[in-house]
Amino acid sequence: SCTMSLSEAEVQSARGAWEKIYVDAEDNGTAVLVRMFTEHPDTKSYFTHFKGMDSAEEMKQSDQVRGHGKKVFSAINDMVQHLDNSEAFLGIVTPLGKKHATQLKIDPKNFRIICDIILQLMDEKFGGDCKASFEKVTNEICTHLNNIYKEEGW
User: Fold this and answer.
1) Structure confidence at residue 3 (pLDDT)
2) Residue ranges of the Globin domain (predicted)?
3) Distance, C-alpha 34 to centroid of its chain
4) What is the largest CA-CA distance in the chain?
5) Which residues have CB under 8 Å from 126's CB, separation 6+?
6) Any residues with CB less than 8 A from the CB of 146 and at least 6 apart, and which?
7) What per-residue confidence (pLDDT) applies to 50?
8) Is 3 part of a structural domain of the chain?
């Protein structure tokens, strides 16, 4: 469906929550990926150049991990800017989902893992209110990505 289930107030508080973590996009994006690779080592298999890295320290220093962390945060940032415009939002989510489904063949459960880790990080750094106001956004993102995967035959 093309309708977003967030009220104007929810959009505003979600943006406020996101801004806090996006200020340090590269560091926080890296922290999210490092935690994902550490807690869910199977996710590393999708990234050929991360495979040999075992220590969190090594991953944190890696330009490739940092680069991808920043990329993930930039993509989410684009989505957050368009939460009140479902057409524009889907214009960002759809090609991203298609690419991950068809070219990269990434298991869609990894999006949920990343979103959950972002919420954990928000909770740790800025508290439960911050996390709570962003939770609906992550559900929205994951729902749309899962729909795209279904359309691509997953």
Assistant:
1) 55
2) 5-150
3) 13
4) 45
5) 17, 20, 21
6) 108, 111
7) 82
8) no
Q: Tell me the per-residue pLDDT of 44-88, one tens digit each, with 9 for 90 and over.
A: 988 888 878 889 999 999 999 999 999 999 999 999 999 999 999
The enclosing domain of 49 has a CATH number of 1.10.490.10
- Which contacts of 76-83 are long-range, i.e. CB under 8 A and separated by 24 or more positions? 76/18, 76/118, 76/141, 77/18, 77/22, 77/25, 79/137, 79/141, 80/14, 80/15, 80/18, 80/22, 80/137, 83/4, 83/6, 83/11, 83/14, 83/15, 83/137, 83/140
Low-confidence ranges of the chain (pLDDT < 70): 1-3
3-class DSSP state of 113? helix
Q: What CA–CA distances, in Å, run from 77 to 84, 92, 147, 151?
A: 13, 10, 20, 25
Amino acid (one-letter) located at 16: G
**Tell me, what amino acid is at 55?**
S
Closest Cα partner for 121 from 108, 109, 134, 110? 134
Domain that holds residue 24: 8-152
10 vs 103: CA distance, rounded Å: 34
Residue 106 in any domain: the answer is yes
Provide the residue type at 11 as one letter: V
The total number of structural domains that make up the chain? 1
Give whole-number Cα distances, 69 to 11, 19, 75, 141, in Å.
24, 16, 10, 17
